[in-house]
């Protein structure tokens, strides 16, 4: 099996004690590539160091809405400087994590929108796919994407919206990232949406160390769980795990501009 974890935070201290072992187990399980995403300025170096040290890791850099209070206006300029410095380096695969979060009440929507649009413009300028965090904010996100019309679309990570919202993203060329959330039996609405989504729409992710799947409750989530997540979501869709693995990997390669694996099994 050849899987891509399109969204992880393996740079977080949760993995400091056993990161090399996690990579070794991923390799053995067929989790061949991992995207690690920066969330605020101070962690970009850590993310980049990981991408330089680990050939299976690709990096994305961004200003995450949940860290809104940490971001300063000059951090956008710092992000541009990083992108200019790394322009053309294949280890930098995307811009993210950034987006809109209306679920957490104290995060000012207007400030979020300003950062969101500024980073979408950077993604367009540097021709990188955006990796988006969108919670309770799909209408605003879709309206913004329709207005800006990116030539190179990306991924809406941990998608938990409606089928209609999914269709809007697909029309804009975006893929939808699925991980632990739809494996929980109580996620009825999301599970019904996932069952209907076309295979061309999907990429897989863990969001490790967060969003543990139902088969590993209350544990640190890890990219090692991606094969189990893939098997669970394939069963939900009534298809083989191999078919979901192959389709999601092909979709991820298309987003990031990677050559598809020679042997997808
Ligand atoms: Zn994330």
Number of helices: 9
Strand order of the largest sheet: 1-2-3-4-5-6-7-8
- Characterize the quaternary organization of these chains: single chain
Average pLDDT rating: 96
Total beta strands? 8
The coarse silhouette is: globular
Q: What kind of sheet is the major sheet?
A: 8 strands, parallel
Give the termini distance in whole angstroms. Answer: 4 Å
**Fraction of residues in helix:** 40-55%
Extract low-pLDDT stretches. none
Binned strand content: 15-25%
What small molecules accompany the polymer chains?
zinc ion
- Computed structural class: alpha/beta
C-alpha-based Rg, rounded: 17 Å
Give the ordered list of helices and strands. EHEHEHEHEHEHEHEHH
Describe it for me?
- With 265 residues, this protein is of the alpha/beta class.
- It is globular.
- It has an eight-stranded parallel beta sheet.
- It is built from nine helices and eight strands.
- The model has no long low-confidence stretch (mean pLDDT 96).
- It has helices at 19-29, 41-53, 73-86, 109-125, 138-148, 163-171, 188-196, 226-237, 241-256, and strands at 3-8, 31-37, 57-61, 92-101, 130-135, 155-157, 175-178, 202-204.
- Helix 8 crosses helix 9.
- The protein binds zinc ion (ZN).
- Zinc ion (ZN) binds next to loops.
